[in-house]
Amino acid sequence: MKEIVIALAEIVNNVHDMIIDIFGLRMSDKELHFWVIGFIGMITFFFVYFFFKILENLKWSITIFSFIYTFTVMLVLVFAIELQQAITNRGNMEFADAVMGLWGFIVMFFVYAVLALIIYIIVKVDRKRKK
Fold it and tell me: Are 44 and 98 contained in the same domain?
């Protein structure tokens, strides 16, 4: 995982240098972050907005939104834990650990979804039977 973080940092540094070379601008890191993160954020916002507008029409959209939000939080949490392990040298910083943690959430959510679906079907069948 350290190699991945170092590789990502190298990519960011190369993009930083390319932006300076292409536009000939001398910006501080704060100014560069302002513009680059601002543009990335707006592109992401429009993509997410469009995607969520499609999802809102689905029957279980709140469940889908909740899963997406929770998965995003878990992604940040898992990588924060891995970075903490690298900084404090307590445990090994490995990408596989992060992936396994996320798989744990996905498997547990799948179990929840199956149980919820079973209960939903039972309730629906029971209501039809009572009518």
Answer: no
